[in-house]
Amino acid sequence: MSFSQKILHWYSENKRSLPWRSTRDPYKIWLSEIILQQTRVVQGEPYYLKFVENFPNVQDLANASEERVLKLWQGLGYYSRARNLHATAKTVVKEYGGRFPDSYDELLKLKGVGDYTASAIASICFDEPRPVVDGNVYRVLARYFGVAIPINITKGIKYFKQLAIEVMDGKNIRDYNQGIMEFGAIQCAPKKPYCLLCPLNESCSALKKNLVQTLPIKENRTKVRKRNFNYLVWLDPNNKTRLSQRKGKGIWQNLWEFPLLESENELNEKEVRKELNEIVSGDSFRLFLYNESSIVHKLSHQHLYTKFWIIESNAKLENGFSLEDLESYPVPVLISDFIKAFKNSYF
Known about the structure:
The chain is α+β, with helices and mostly antiparallel strands. 44% of the residues lie in helices and 13% in strands. The chain has 14 helices and 9 strands. It has helices spanning 3-14, 26-36, 41-54, 58-63, 66-73, 80-96, 104-107, 115-126, 135-145, 154-167, 173-186, 205-208, 269-279, 333-346; strands at 225-235, 240-241, 244-245, 256-257, 260-263, 285-289, 295-298, 302-313, 321-322. Strands 1, 5, 6, 7 and 8 form a 5-stranded mixed β-sheet that branches. α9 packs across α11 (173-186). The longest helix has 17 residues, at 80-96. It is elongated, with a radius of gyration of 24 Å. The N and C termini lie far apart (65 Å).
Protein backbone atom coordinates (compact mmCIF):
# COMPACT_ATOMS: atom_id res chain seq x y z
CA MET A 1 0.00 0.00 0.00
CA SER A 2 1.08 3.58 -0.65
CA PHE A 3 1.59 6.17 2.09
CA SER A 4 -1.88 7.66 1.56
CA GLN A 5 -3.56 4.24 1.43
CA LYS A 6 -1.99 3.29 4.76
CA ILE A 7 -3.23 6.54 6.29
CA LEU A 8 -6.75 5.92 4.99
CA HIS A 9 -6.75 2.32 6.25
CA TRP A 10 -5.51 3.40 9.68
CA TYR A 11 -8.15 6.15 9.83
CA SER A 12 -10.99 3.79 8.99
CA GLU A 13 -10.07 1.66 12.00
CA ASN A 14 -8.97 4.29 14.52
CA LYS A 15 -10.85 7.54 13.95
CA ARG A 16 -12.41 9.14 17.00
CA SER A 17 -16.11 9.90 17.15
CA LEU A 18 -16.16 13.69 17.06
CA PRO A 19 -19.25 15.88 16.54
CA TRP A 20 -17.95 17.62 13.41
CA ARG A 21 -17.12 14.30 11.72
CA SER A 22 -20.77 13.58 10.98
CA THR A 23 -21.42 16.69 8.91
CA ARG A 24 -20.43 18.42 5.71
CA ASP A 25 -22.02 21.69 6.80
CA PRO A 26 -19.30 24.28 6.02
CA TYR A 27 -20.47 26.46 8.91
CA LYS A 28 -19.82 23.69 11.43
CA ILE A 29 -16.57 22.59 9.80
CA TRP A 30 -15.34 26.21 9.75
CA LEU A 31 -16.39 26.64 13.38
CA SER A 32 -14.53 23.50 14.47
CA GLU A 33 -11.39 24.43 12.54
CA ILE A 34 -11.22 27.94 14.03
CA ILE A 35 -11.74 26.59 17.55
CA LEU A 36 -9.12 23.87 17.09
CA GLN A 37 -6.42 26.27 15.90
CA GLN A 38 -3.78 26.12 18.66
CA THR A 39 -6.25 24.17 20.81
CA ARG A 40 -6.32 20.44 21.59
CA VAL A 41 -9.45 18.48 20.67
CA VAL A 42 -10.22 17.56 24.28
CA GLN A 43 -10.30 21.25 25.20
CA GLY A 44 -11.97 22.50 22.02
CA GLU A 45 -14.83 20.00 21.73
CA PRO A 46 -16.93 21.45 24.61
CA TYR A 47 -16.55 24.93 23.10
CA TYR A 48 -17.67 23.65 19.70
CA LEU A 49 -20.77 22.09 21.22
CA LYS A 50 -21.47 25.27 23.18
CA PHE A 51 -21.20 27.46 20.08
CA VAL A 52 -23.41 25.16 17.99
CA GLU A 53 -26.01 25.14 20.77
CA ASN A 54 -26.03 28.93 21.07
CA PHE A 55 -25.54 29.68 17.37
CA PRO A 56 -26.99 26.79 15.29
CA ASN A 57 -26.23 28.57 12.02
CA VAL A 58 -24.09 31.37 10.66
CA GLN A 59 -26.98 33.87 10.80
CA ASP A 60 -27.34 33.33 14.55
CA LEU A 61 -23.62 33.94 15.07
CA ALA A 62 -23.66 37.03 12.85
CA ASN A 63 -26.58 38.52 14.79
CA ALA A 64 -25.00 37.94 18.22
CA SER A 65 -23.25 40.69 20.15
CA GLU A 66 -19.46 40.61 20.26
CA GLU A 67 -19.64 40.52 24.05
CA ARG A 68 -21.67 37.31 23.97
CA VAL A 69 -19.26 35.71 21.50
CA LEU A 70 -16.26 36.64 23.62
CA LYS A 71 -17.96 35.34 26.76
CA LEU A 72 -18.59 31.93 25.15
CA TRP A 73 -14.97 31.92 23.93
CA GLN A 74 -13.61 32.73 27.40
CA GLY A 75 -10.82 30.37 28.39
CA LEU A 76 -9.74 29.37 24.87
CA GLY A 77 -7.20 32.17 24.48
CA TYR A 78 -6.03 33.85 21.27
CA TYR A 79 -9.17 36.00 21.34
CA SER A 80 -8.50 37.43 17.88
CA ARG A 81 -9.89 34.09 16.65
CA ALA A 82 -13.23 34.89 18.28
CA ARG A 83 -13.34 38.41 16.86
CA ASN A 84 -12.45 37.11 13.39
CA LEU A 85 -15.07 34.38 13.78
CA HIS A 86 -17.73 36.98 14.49
CA ALA A 87 -16.60 39.28 11.66
CA THR A 88 -16.52 36.43 9.15
CA ALA A 89 -20.03 35.29 10.10
CA LYS A 90 -21.27 38.80 9.34
CA THR A 91 -19.43 38.77 6.00
CA VAL A 92 -20.90 35.40 5.00
CA VAL A 93 -24.41 36.64 5.79
CA LYS A 94 -24.01 40.05 4.18
CA GLU A 95 -21.91 39.26 1.11
CA TYR A 96 -22.66 35.58 0.45
CA GLY A 97 -26.32 35.38 1.44
CA GLY A 98 -25.57 33.18 4.43
CA ARG A 99 -23.89 30.46 2.34
CA PHE A 100 -20.19 29.75 2.70
CA PRO A 101 -18.07 29.93 -0.45
CA ASP A 102 -17.58 26.48 -1.95
CA SER A 103 -14.02 26.84 -3.23
CA TYR A 104 -10.56 27.21 -1.70
CA ASP A 105 -9.87 30.49 -3.50
CA GLU A 106 -13.10 32.13 -2.31
CA LEU A 107 -12.73 30.81 1.23
CA LEU A 108 -9.30 32.45 1.44
CA LYS A 109 -10.97 35.85 1.13
CA LEU A 110 -12.69 35.43 4.50
CA LYS A 111 -11.14 37.07 7.55
CA GLY A 112 -9.22 34.67 9.74
CA VAL A 113 -9.19 31.96 7.07
CA GLY A 114 -5.73 31.01 5.86
CA ASP A 115 -4.37 28.22 3.69
CA TYR A 116 -4.97 25.48 6.25
CA THR A 117 -8.56 26.42 7.14
CA ALA A 118 -9.54 27.04 3.52
CA SER A 119 -8.05 23.67 2.53
CA ALA A 120 -9.89 21.90 5.35
CA ILE A 121 -13.29 23.38 4.50
CA ALA A 122 -12.86 22.95 0.73
CA SER A 123 -11.78 19.32 1.03
CA ILE A 124 -14.10 18.14 3.81
CA CYS A 125 -17.23 19.93 2.59
CA PHE A 126 -16.75 20.14 -1.17
CA ASP A 127 -14.23 17.36 -1.99
CA GLU A 128 -11.78 19.84 -3.50
CA PRO A 129 -8.34 18.12 -3.65
CA ARG A 130 -6.46 20.47 -1.32
CA PRO A 131 -4.11 18.99 1.29
CA VAL A 132 -4.19 20.33 4.83
CA VAL A 133 -0.91 21.06 6.57
CA ASP A 134 -1.22 21.65 10.32
CA GLY A 135 1.11 20.79 13.19
CA ASN A 136 0.10 17.14 13.12
CA VAL A 137 0.69 16.86 9.37
CA TYR A 138 4.08 18.58 9.61
CA ARG A 139 5.11 16.01 12.21
CA VAL A 140 3.98 12.99 10.21
CA LEU A 141 5.60 14.16 6.97
CA ALA A 142 8.82 15.33 8.63
CA ARG A 143 9.30 12.03 10.45
CA TYR A 144 8.22 9.67 7.71
CA PHE A 145 10.23 11.35 4.94
CA GLY A 146 13.08 12.51 7.20
CA VAL A 147 12.76 16.21 6.38
CA ALA A 148 15.05 18.42 8.48
CA ILE A 149 13.93 21.77 7.05
CA PRO A 150 12.40 23.95 9.82
CA ILE A 151 8.62 24.04 9.53
CA ASN A 152 8.32 27.71 10.53
CA ILE A 153 10.44 29.30 7.82
CA THR A 154 9.27 30.18 4.30
CA LYS A 155 11.37 27.45 2.68
CA GLY A 156 9.95 24.82 5.01
CA ILE A 157 6.35 25.93 4.61
CA LYS A 158 6.62 25.76 0.81
CA TYR A 159 8.46 22.43 0.87
CA PHE A 160 5.95 20.68 3.13
CA LYS A 161 3.01 22.07 1.18
CA GLN A 162 4.39 20.64 -2.04
CA LEU A 163 5.19 17.33 -0.34
CA ALA A 164 1.63 17.18 1.02
CA ILE A 165 0.27 17.69 -2.50
CA GLU A 166 2.45 14.88 -3.87
CA VAL A 167 1.43 12.25 -1.31
CA MET A 168 -2.26 13.10 -0.81
CA ASP A 169 -5.15 10.94 -1.98
CA GLY A 170 -7.09 13.36 -4.16
CA LYS A 171 -9.93 10.92 -4.85
CA ASN A 172 -10.79 10.56 -1.15
CA ILE A 173 -9.45 13.87 0.06
CA ARG A 174 -12.08 14.29 2.77
CA ASP A 175 -11.07 11.17 4.69
CA TYR A 176 -7.40 11.47 3.79
CA ASN A 177 -7.04 14.96 5.25
CA GLN A 178 -8.91 14.03 8.41
CA GLY A 179 -6.94 10.80 8.54
CA ILE A 180 -3.45 12.29 8.41
CA MET A 181 -4.37 14.90 11.04
CA GLU A 182 -5.82 12.17 13.25
CA PHE A 183 -2.77 9.99 12.65
CA GLY A 184 -0.50 12.81 13.82
CA ALA A 185 -2.62 13.50 16.88
CA ILE A 186 -2.90 9.87 18.06
CA GLN A 187 -0.36 7.54 16.41
CA CYS A 188 2.52 9.87 15.54
CA ALA A 189 2.08 11.95 18.70
CA PRO A 190 4.59 14.68 19.64
CA LYS A 191 6.23 13.12 22.71
CA LYS A 192 5.24 9.46 22.90
CA PRO A 193 4.45 8.17 19.42
CA TYR A 194 3.40 4.53 19.09
CA CYS A 195 6.20 3.56 16.73
CA LEU A 196 6.16 -0.16 17.60
CA LEU A 197 2.60 -0.60 16.33
CA CYS A 198 2.73 2.05 13.60
CA PRO A 199 1.63 0.94 10.10
CA LEU A 200 4.31 3.21 8.64
CA ASN A 201 7.22 2.01 10.80
CA GLU A 202 8.88 -0.19 8.17
CA SER A 203 9.61 2.79 5.93
CA CYS A 204 9.72 5.67 8.43
CA SER A 205 12.97 7.58 7.95
CA ALA A 206 12.99 9.11 11.43
CA LEU A 207 12.56 5.72 13.08
CA LYS A 208 15.41 4.21 11.05
CA LYS A 209 17.76 7.10 11.87
CA ASN A 210 16.64 7.54 15.50
CA LEU A 211 15.30 11.04 14.79
CA VAL A 212 11.72 10.59 16.02
CA GLN A 213 12.21 12.96 18.95
CA THR A 214 14.18 15.43 16.79
CA LEU A 215 11.74 15.91 13.93
CA PRO A 216 10.06 18.14 12.97
CA ILE A 217 12.49 21.01 13.44
CA LYS A 218 11.24 24.43 14.44
CA GLU A 219 13.43 27.51 14.64
CA ASN A 220 13.17 29.25 17.99
CA ARG A 221 12.63 32.86 16.98
CA THR A 222 10.21 33.91 19.71
CA LYS A 223 11.43 36.30 22.38
CA VAL A 224 9.32 36.08 25.50
CA ARG A 225 8.46 39.44 27.04
CA LYS A 226 8.03 39.71 30.80
CA ARG A 227 5.32 42.09 32.06
CA ASN A 228 4.30 43.03 35.60
CA PHE A 229 0.54 43.46 36.04
CA ASN A 230 -1.01 44.93 39.17
CA TYR A 231 -4.78 44.71 39.16
CA LEU A 232 -6.64 47.11 41.46
CA VAL A 233 -9.76 45.41 42.77
CA TRP A 234 -11.96 48.17 44.16
CA LEU A 235 -14.63 47.39 46.75
CA ASP A 236 -17.03 50.06 47.95
CA PRO A 237 -19.55 49.74 50.85
CA ASN A 238 -22.11 48.22 48.45
CA ASN A 239 -19.70 45.60 47.11
CA LYS A 240 -19.39 47.43 43.83
CA THR A 241 -16.12 47.39 41.91
CA ARG A 242 -14.55 48.90 38.82
CA LEU A 243 -14.12 47.29 35.43
CA SER A 244 -12.89 48.66 32.15
CA GLN A 245 -12.75 47.29 28.63
CA ARG A 246 -9.40 46.83 26.92
CA LYS A 247 -9.27 48.84 23.71
CA GLY A 248 -6.76 49.08 20.91
CA LYS A 249 -4.49 46.35 19.64
CA GLY A 250 -2.70 43.94 21.92
CA ILE A 251 -3.77 41.09 24.16
CA TRP A 252 -7.39 40.65 25.26
CA GLN A 253 -8.87 43.30 22.99
CA ASN A 254 -12.45 44.17 24.05
CA LEU A 255 -12.31 41.93 27.12
CA TRP A 256 -13.02 43.39 30.56
CA GLU A 257 -10.57 43.75 33.42
CA PHE A 258 -9.97 45.57 36.71
CA PRO A 259 -8.04 48.86 36.61
CA LEU A 260 -4.46 47.97 35.78
CA LEU A 261 -1.09 49.29 36.87
CA GLU A 262 1.61 47.89 34.62
CA SER A 263 5.11 48.39 35.95
CA GLU A 264 8.66 47.82 34.81
CA ASN A 265 9.47 45.98 38.01
CA GLU A 266 7.45 44.21 40.69
CA LEU A 267 5.63 46.72 42.91
CA ASN A 268 5.40 46.57 46.70
CA GLU A 269 2.57 47.93 48.85
CA LYS A 270 4.24 51.29 49.39
CA GLU A 271 4.63 51.86 45.67
CA VAL A 272 1.05 50.83 44.91
CA ARG A 273 -0.25 53.07 47.69
CA LYS A 274 1.68 56.00 46.24
CA GLU A 275 0.00 55.44 42.87
CA LEU A 276 -3.40 55.17 44.53
CA ASN A 277 -2.99 58.39 46.51
CA GLU A 278 -2.81 60.25 43.21
CA ILE A 279 -6.05 58.63 42.06
CA VAL A 280 -8.20 58.64 45.20
CA SER A 281 -6.77 61.56 47.15
CA GLY A 282 -9.07 62.58 50.00
CA ASP A 283 -10.74 59.17 50.21
CA SER A 284 -9.84 56.71 52.95
CA PHE A 285 -9.16 53.18 51.85
CA ARG A 286 -7.62 49.94 53.04
CA LEU A 287 -5.12 48.26 50.75
CA PHE A 288 -3.95 44.67 50.93
CA LEU A 289 -2.42 42.12 48.58
CA TYR A 290 -4.60 39.15 47.70
CA ASN A 291 -1.81 36.86 46.43
CA GLU A 292 1.61 37.03 48.09
CA SER A 293 3.38 35.48 45.09
CA SER A 294 2.82 36.71 41.56
CA ILE A 295 0.56 34.56 39.40
CA VAL A 296 2.51 33.76 36.24
CA HIS A 297 0.17 33.69 33.25
CA LYS A 298 1.96 32.45 30.14
CA LEU A 299 0.93 33.62 26.69
CA SER A 300 2.68 32.72 23.46
CA HIS A 301 5.03 35.69 23.39
CA GLN A 302 4.79 37.08 26.90
CA HIS A 303 4.61 36.07 30.53
CA LEU A 304 2.42 38.13 32.85
CA TYR A 305 3.50 38.34 36.49
CA THR A 306 0.27 39.35 38.14
CA LYS A 307 -0.77 40.59 41.56
CA PHE A 308 -4.29 41.46 42.69
CA TRP A 309 -4.49 44.37 45.14
CA ILE A 310 -7.73 44.68 47.10
CA ILE A 311 -8.86 48.24 47.82
CA GLU A 312 -11.64 48.63 50.38
CA SER A 313 -12.90 52.19 50.06
CA ASN A 314 -15.50 54.13 52.06
CA ALA A 315 -16.47 56.11 48.99
CA LYS A 316 -19.34 54.76 46.92
CA LEU A 317 -18.47 54.09 43.30
CA GLU A 318 -20.54 55.81 40.67
CA ASN A 319 -21.47 53.40 37.87
CA GLY A 320 -19.79 50.58 39.76
CA PHE A 321 -20.08 46.91 38.80
CA SER A 322 -21.69 44.51 41.26
CA LEU A 323 -19.49 41.63 42.35
CA GLU A 324 -22.44 39.34 41.79
CA ASP A 325 -22.56 40.30 38.10
CA LEU A 326 -18.87 40.01 37.26
CA GLU A 327 -19.10 36.50 35.86
CA SER A 328 -21.44 37.70 33.11
CA TYR A 329 -18.69 39.80 31.49
CA PRO A 330 -16.13 38.35 29.07
CA VAL A 331 -12.80 38.52 30.89
CA PRO A 332 -9.39 36.87 30.44
CA VAL A 333 -9.18 33.47 32.12
CA LEU A 334 -6.60 34.93 34.52
CA ILE A 335 -9.23 37.31 35.88
CA SER A 336 -12.03 34.76 35.68
CA ASP A 337 -10.07 32.41 37.94
CA PHE A 338 -9.42 35.24 40.39
CA ILE A 339 -13.09 36.27 40.50
CA LYS A 340 -14.21 32.73 41.34
CA ALA A 341 -11.58 32.28 44.05
CA PHE A 342 -12.10 35.74 45.52
CA LYS A 343 -15.88 35.49 45.72
CA ASN A 344 -15.55 32.15 47.51
CA SER A 345 -13.08 33.49 50.04
CA TYR A 346 -14.39 37.03 50.50
CA PHE A 347 -18.05 36.32 51.17
